[in-house]
Structure formats: C-alpha cells, structure tokens
C-alpha cells in the first residue's frame, strides 16, 4: 500500500489542466489560411488534391465538415496558403459554422433553457453509425485520467433512456438508420444530438456512396457538429464545454468547477 502511494506521488497529476494547450505532434488542429490563399493558383492546386472537396476556390471557403485533416493540401502547396496548426479549438455548432474563409464564424452556445437543464449534468449515449471507429476511440479516451470528462459533470451511459442526448459517429449506413432513429426516440425530451467527425457531418470519405446517408443531419436534427477525422479528445472537450459552458474563456458560476 505504501509503495502504491509513493508511486502515485512520483507520477504526479496526469489530467490536463484548464485552459489546455496545443495538440501534441503529429495531430493536426485548426487550419490556418493565409489572406492571399484564394487569390492565386495555390487554392486550385489544393482543391484538386482534396479527395473530399473540402476546399472551394470559387466560394473561397474551407469546409471543416468535409475536411479529413489528411494534410495533403498542406503538402501540395508547401505549407504556403494553408497549414494545420496544433490548436485543438475548432468551430462547432450548426453546419454553417464549419465553413470558414476570411473569417471564422463564432460558435454558438446552448440557449438558456437547455443550459439550465443540462449545464451541470450531461449524459450521452454514443452511437457508432457505420464509421471506422476512429471517432469512437477518441470519444472513449475522454473517460481516461488524462482528459477526465466526468470532472465536468459529463458522462457516457449504456442506455438511451438514461441519456440527455446522442453522440453519433459515422456516416449513418443504411443498415444503421433505423437503429439510430429508434435510439433517438428512446431519449427523453429535451434531447440533443451531437454529430462527431467528418463522416457524421457530411459523410466524409464515404460521401455519395449508395450504402450511407451522408451524415447524421439527413436522418436526425443535429444540435452540435464537431469537426475532425477523428477529432482529438481535446477538440471534443473544447466543443462540449464551449456549447454548454461558454468555454474556452471564463467558466460561468452555473458550471461546476473542475476537480484538481
């Protein structure tokens, strides 16, 4: 017992602090777009290399809902015009908030009623709707001692009847469509739906396939979209806390102070 206590003391605190820092390499975070990116041939080159058509030179936008963060566009233009930063904070919220250009739309915050009901305790049922399980693994990592999602009053539950909403991953395969709808109907109102990852947002690399529904939004009303392929646990944490607690920034009094 004494050796265990000494070992724990030597290891120190593993949990990330608030506000948390940048993503470790080789993870890619928020893309940085140079002001002149869309006014030359660089954007056309990057758009041709993008398999998910996330870059639109004509509209001068980058759709984070389609981006799979592969980095091929950054390589194609030699990091001139567009590059991926280590910043885990990315736009989230409605679908249009993920389309960025000269400016990044401000991510929304849950309305006062929803925050008053779910701001202190949020229980989610995770549904893997036909994806590669990458997003599921990152979401599961939120429960480990490093990210410690439970310190914020947020947890995953085994039954939709115990949940306040769904966290959905994958493009929603046709075989999962009915199961997803039934799971959603089993959640008591008010309920939320969080589409996690490029597949859940737009279909990702499966977009246009006969076997998928091209994202959760074509099946259920989505309240929060979180980009990434897969989104890092810090990106997930940033979106969840930001939507319900005006974080990053000052944590309001209505939200529990995290354990240290």
Description:
By secondary structure, this protein is of the alpha/beta class. The protein folds into 2 domains: 31-87, Alpha-Beta Plaits (2-Layer Sandwich), CATH 3.30.70; 112-245, Rossmann fold (3-Layer(aba) Sandwich). Helix content is 27%, strand content 14%. It has 8 helices and 10 strands. The chain has helices at 2-11, 41-49, 72-76, 112-118, 134-141, 174-185, 198-202, 233-245; strands at 31-33, 55-56, 61-63, 82-84, 99-100, 122-128, 154-156, 165-169, 192-196, 224-226. The strands form 3 sheets. The chain has a 5-stranded parallel sheet with strand order 7-6-8-9-10, with helices on both faces. Strand 9 (192-196), helix 7 and strand 10 (224-226) form a beta-alpha-beta unit. It is globular. The chain starts with a helix and ends in a 15-residue tail after the last helix.
- Percentage of β-strand residues: 5-15%
Q: Bin the helical content.
A: 25-40%
Helices and strands, in order, run as: HEHEEHEEHEHEEHEHEH
Largest sheet: 5 strands, parallel
* CATH-scheme architecture of the largest domain: 3-Layer(aba) Sandwich
Task: Give the N-to-C terminal Cα separation.
Answer: 23 Å
How many individual domains?
2
> Could you please say which CATH topology of the largest domain applies here?
Rossmann fold
- Spatial strand sequence of the major β-sheet: 7-6-8-9-10
Mean pLDDT: 87
Low-confidence runs: 248-260
Structural class: alpha/beta
Radius of gyration: 19 Å
How many helix segments? 8
Which CATH top level class of the largest domain fits?
Alpha Beta
Number of strands: 10
Using the alpha-carbon principal axes, give the shape: globular
């Amino acid at each position: 017992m004494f050796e265990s206590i000494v070992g724990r003391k030597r290891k120190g605190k593993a949990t990330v602090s608030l506000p948390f820092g940048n993503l470790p390499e080789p993870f890619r975070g928020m893309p940085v777009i140079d002001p002149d990116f869309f006014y030359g041939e660089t954007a056309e080159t990057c758009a041709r290399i993008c398999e998910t058509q996330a870059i639109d030179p004509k509209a001068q936008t980058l759709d984070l809902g389609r981006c799979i963060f592969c980095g091929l566009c950054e390589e194609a233009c030699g990091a001139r015009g567009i590059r991926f930063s280590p910043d885990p904070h990315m736009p989230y919220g409605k679908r249009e908030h993920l389309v960025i250009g000269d400016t990044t739309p401000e991510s929304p915050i849950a309305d006062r009623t929803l925050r008053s009901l779910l701001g202190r305790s949020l229980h989610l049922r995770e549904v893997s709707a036909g994806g590669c399980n990458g997003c599921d693994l990152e979401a599961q990592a939120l429960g480990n001692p490093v990210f410690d999602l439970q310190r914020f009053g947020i947890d995953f539950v085994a039954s939709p009847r115990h949940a306040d909403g769904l966290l959905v991953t994958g493009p929603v395969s046709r075989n999962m469509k009915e199961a997803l709808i039934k799971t959603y109907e089993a959640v008591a109102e008010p309920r939320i739906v969080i589409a996690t990852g490029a597949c859940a947002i737009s279909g990702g690399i499966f977009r246009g396939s006969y076997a998928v529904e091209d994202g959760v939004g074509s099946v259920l009303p989505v309240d929060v979209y979180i980009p990434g392929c897969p989104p890092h646990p810090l990106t997930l944490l940033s979106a969840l806390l930001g939507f319900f607690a005006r974080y990053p920034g000052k944590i309001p009094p209505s939200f529990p102070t995290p354990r240290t």
